[in-house]
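STRUCTURE:
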């Protein structure tokens, strides 16, 4: 048995120890998490769907394996929550959209297949902004997830359910997807750790596509070590994803363990001057960033000022490229191949109107229209082509910066979690990703870690480390050392 209090502090690594020492069974662990979910999810609303029977039967199988000494990995029997745009065979996959209301995945995504091969228990479908478009979870067609630190505030988005489920101790780890910040921004808002791997590091087979040149799946957890351990499992080449890199996975957690207790002597950390001159950055965030820089320096890191001169174009470029790709990717939801076909549609136009008009939410429609516009002949050169060119400049900014430093330090978000309804103007909402979006445009990797508490709101504040493409080992090692030395050791809401 595990007490509710101990459950709140449990992470992946310590759950693994308890299971290995036979101090708890997988069924016991899953029952404790189900009880916790029963207690808090009526308020937090992290989960769109929880299949209790299925969870307990996976757990029972895991216990049987352990009893026979045939566990599949140290994590066999530990639950993980999955964002509702990542396919789990036989389970719903709605992308928090009405258009996929009754859809069930016919197969496992590669990431889920790999988690199952290591014995992890797939625990529920987490809420999100519809089709991963948003920064607050307010765009879900079903419900609004709340921030476990303050239920009147958003958990961030689009992987808000995945971040909130970990922060509320309903699961020890989860998977999200990050197209422009959707893992890192909600992780920062909820006081948990979120990792966006290098583009191509993790297979996207079975992830419902939003913007294919930007999307990446990654883990959310309580610690750097936990996210590294999950990346070890889900990463690595996949022949089913043509953008998958040949790189192997499996040594990230070791790198983190080795760096424990170390310092940052000899590490050059770049601080982009443009990121601290942005008006939108709130004083509480700035203060935590200053404290964090002091900690990095005290650990022996050399901090240098760098420049990412095209930062001011990142949001505009993202909303051209991401919407263009989304307009193509979402064309498949037409009531013929996917979605429930309305019985009273007399011709193709009325079918589309009934199906797409009613099935998609406002933000999704806005983006399809914008994306179709920037790709249309006459506007393609002026918007899409130009956007791609500026994207190259943004990527070059990062590559030039990495000539001068090993890693970039940045805030994760310009403010702590905001209140529901506070950013009803979409342009205001888009600004919430100002520090995360360029990383996806550049295709590189980044992690957001809780760094402190915003004095004005008492909410957690996240910082980011950004590393060169395939620089996860170094990034995770530096993150571990920072994590061990930051002012607050554990970020746990009082919920
Ligand atoms: N908030 C950004 C958007 O709305 C990023 C979303 C994401 O990373 N999926 O598009």
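SEQUENCE:
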């Amino acid at each position: 048995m595990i007490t509710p209090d101990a459950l709140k502090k449990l992470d992946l690594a310590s759950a693994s120890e308890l299971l290995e020492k036979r101090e708890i069974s997988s069924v016991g662990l899953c029952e404790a998490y189900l009880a916790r979910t029963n207690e808090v999810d009526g308020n937090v609303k992290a989960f769109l769907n929880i299949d209790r029977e299925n969870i307990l039967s996976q757990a029972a199988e895991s216990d049987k394996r352990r009893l026979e000494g045939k566990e599949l990995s140290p994590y066999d029997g530990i639950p993980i929550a999955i964002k509702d745009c990542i396919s789990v065979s036989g389970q719903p996959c709605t992308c928090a959209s009405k258009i996929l209301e009754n859809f069930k995945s016919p197969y496992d995504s590669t990431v889920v297949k790999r988690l199952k091969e290591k014995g992890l228990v797939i625990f529920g479908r987490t809420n999100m902004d519809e089709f991963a478009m948003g920064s607050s979870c307010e765009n879900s067609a079903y419900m609004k997830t709340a921030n476990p630190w303050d239920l009147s505030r958003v958990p961030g988005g689009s992987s808000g359910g995945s971040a909130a489920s970990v922060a509320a101790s309903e699961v020890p780890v989860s998977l999200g997807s990050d197209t422009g910040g959707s893992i890192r921004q909600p992780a920062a808002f909820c006081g948990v750790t979120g990792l966006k791997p290098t583009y191509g590091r993790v297979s996207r087979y079975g992830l419902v596509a939003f913007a294919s040149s930007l999307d990446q799946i990654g883990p959310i957890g309580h610690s750097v070590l936990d996210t590294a351990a999950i990346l070890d499992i889900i990463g690595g080449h996949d022949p089913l994803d043509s953008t998958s890199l040949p790189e192997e996975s499996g040594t990230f957690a070791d790198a983190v363990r080795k760096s424990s207790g170390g310092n940052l002597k000899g590490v050059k950390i770049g601080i982009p001057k443009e990121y601290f001159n942005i008006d939108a950055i709130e004083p509480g965030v700035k203060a935590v960033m200053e404290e964090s820089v002091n900690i990095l320096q005290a650990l022996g890191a050399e901090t240098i000022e760098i420049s990412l001169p095209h930062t001011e174009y990142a949001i505009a470029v993202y909303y051209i490229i991401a919407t263009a790709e989304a307009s193509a990717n979402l064309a498949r939801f037409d009531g013929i191949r996917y979605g429930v076909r309305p019985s009273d549609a007399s011709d193709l136009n009325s079918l589309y109107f009934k199906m797409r008009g009613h099935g998609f939410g406002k933000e999704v429609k806005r983006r399809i229209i914008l994306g179709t516009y920037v790709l249309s002949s006459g506007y393609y050169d002026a918007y899409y082509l130009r956007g791609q060119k500026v994207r190259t400049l943004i990527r070059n900014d990062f590559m030039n910066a990495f000539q001068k430093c090993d890693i970039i330090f940045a805030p994760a978000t310009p403010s702590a979690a905001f209140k529901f309804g506070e950013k009803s103007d979409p342009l205001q909402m888009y600004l919430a990703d100002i520090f995360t979006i360029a990383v996806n445009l550049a295709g590189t990797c980044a992690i957001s870690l809780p760094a402190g508490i915003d004095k004005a709101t008492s909410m957690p504040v996240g910082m980011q480390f950004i590393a060169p493409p395939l620089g996860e080992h170094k990034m995770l090692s530096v993150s571990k050392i920072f994590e061990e030395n930051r002012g607050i050791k554990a970020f746990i809401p009082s919920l």
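REMARK: The chain has a mean pLDDT of 96.
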